[in-house]
């Protein structure tokens, strides 16, 4: 292990680090929005939209992000839709993540016990009131663990962006290895860089899970 | 002159091929207390849940305060504001304080002012002897306390009829009394009309104006007040009473 090589590579890794961070952030926020919308369509059983959501979720959850990115980046231009690598990456991440997030939210809403819903109904609440005051608040807190797992998963998935030449962390490392053949050093920095993002985030999310656990307290 | 509040006419219910309630008929006057007795799992709770639309039924009809309710065609959301229900599992909302639990429906469903709803909720809390717990969360309460809050929550809607579904079944023996005393007080002081599914035989005997004894989804006996306990008509009821330790 040559520390000097590591030191010299740090500015480049810093750029990759930033790239990974902002792509992840945009992808996760987008995925949450798409996921929430989808799970609301399912919760309120909106005709047609509900079925479309199921198809979308199954399709994106059961195909690799790699293939989704290849389709967006290489196949879509053939059909006349050309997008930059970054756009493709973000779209891919948002829709992959959206499918997982939708499942996460839906799992939370489904987890609210029927007796809670019954007791709301027995008080004369409308479907909207049941959703607003009982199912959503409790469902969100139930879905936090799975949303948290999805967030970590999506950040790690950004490493696949390297195949469409987005200069994020993994791509930076692979480039450097290709240029200087120092795989030990660059892979070491790569692992550390991901750990710097993921370990604190993971701890933060665990703390958040504990904070919002009232939904599972029974009562 | 007793005023009829609820009439159940030829109510039957099935799950698919399996019929769970057979031709149920009974009526209840304002201020009366009815207890539904019988072995576990024979449809008492299901029948109770049919009375506020939590379960649907296939044939027959209900008449509640003069309004005829046909299966599946009822505006249950309106009706339920007049029919309170308390469950075995209390089901307070865990993400809200005791006060919020009680005032949620009065404020959101009945559109009463927050101030008025809270003032009433505090009065109700005093009545169920939990005045100090307004700002507590359900998880901080014992089972008996939760159940009394659940009763207060139902009362805050000013129901004309209260349904109690085995409300003491999951409580410690010493908690049971506080809940039963409260229900008794509702009957004696407020003349609240109530239908109570219970396995507490002593309590049922003390409180019931009418007893409905069910087995396998059918009413086997329908008797006034204490007669059921002193003079059961069917062998099934005699066996049932003999098996209950009271």
Give keywords.
A: mainly alpha, 8 helices, B: 246 residues, alpha/beta, Rossmann fold, six-stranded mixed sheet, 10 strands, 26% strand
How would you portray this structure in words?
The complex is a heterodimer of chains A (219) and B (246). Chain A has a single domain (3-216), classed as MetI-like fold. Helices cover 80% and strands 0% of the residues of chain A. Chain A has helices at residues 3-43, 49-61, 65-78, 85-111, 114-122, 127-157, 169-180, 183-211. Chain A is flat and about 70 Å long. With 246 residues, chain B is an alpha/beta fold. Chain B has a domain at 4-89 and 161-243: Rossmann fold. Chain B contains 9 helices and 10 strands. Chain B has helices at 44-50, 76-79, 98-108, 114-127, 143-155, 173-190, 201-207, 227-230, 235-243, and strands at 4-15, 18-29, 33-37, 59-64, 67-69, 83-86, 161-165, 193-197, 210-215, 218-224. Chain B is globular and about 50 Å long. The chains are: A mainly alpha (219), B alpha/beta (246). At the A-B interface, helix 5 and helix 6 of A face helix 2, strand 6, helix 3 and helix 5 of B.
Taken together, the total number of domains of chain A comes to 1
CATH architecture of chain A: Orthogonal Bundle
How much of the sequence lies in strands of chain B comes to 25-35%
Going by CATH, the homologous superfamily of the domain at 4-89 and 161-243 in chain B would be: P-loop containing nucleotide triphosphate hydrolases
What is the alpha-carbon Rg of chain B in Å? Answer: 18 Å
CATH class of the domain at 4-89 and 161-243 in chain B: Alpha Beta
Side by side, the strands of the main sheet of chain B go: 6-7-8-3-9-10
The oligomeric state of the chains shown is heterodimer
Overall pLDDT of chain B: 92
Query: What name does the CATH topology of chain A carry?
Result: MetI-like fold
Mean model confidence by pLDDT of chain A: 93
Structural class of chain B: alpha/beta
What's the level 1 CATH class of chain A?
Answer: Mainly Alpha
The greatest interface between two protein chains, and residues involved on each side, is: A-B, 23 and 32 residues
